Amino acid sequence: MASLSEQLGRFIAELREAGVRISVAEAIDAMKAVATAGLERSRMREALAATLVKEEADRAIFDRTFDRFFAGPPRQAGRRRHPEHPGMAESAASGRGRPGETPHPNERRKPAREPEGKGTAPGEEEHEQSREMRATAAERETGVGESRERAVSSLEPGSEGRRLARIREIERKPFSAYTELEYEQAREILKPLERRFRIRLGRRLRIARAGRIDFRRTIRAGIQRGGLMPELRMRSRRPRHVDLLILADISGSVRYAAELMLELMAGARNCFRRVRSFVYIDRLAEADFEQGHMVCSPPLDLYARSDFGRVLAQLWERRAELVNRQTLIVILGDARNNRRPARADLLREIAQLCRGVVWLNPEEPARWGSGDSAIEQYRRAVTALHPSGSLRELERALVAAC
Amino acid sequence: MDITPETVADGLKKARYITNERVETAIFIALALEKPLLIEGPAGAGKTEVAKVLAEMLGTQLVRLQCYEGLDEARALYEWNYQKQLLRMQADEAQDLRWEEVSEHIFSPEYLLERPLLKAITAPHRVVLLIDEIDKADEEFEAFLLELLSDFQVSIPELGTIRALERPVVVLTSNRSRELSEALRRRCLHLFIDFPGVEQERRIIELKVPNLDARLAAEAARFVAAVRKLGLRKPPSIAETLDWVRALQHLGVKELNTEAVRSALGVLLKHEDDRAKVESRASTLVARPR
Question: Of B192, B221, B251, which residue sits at a domain end?
Answer without folding.
Answer: B192
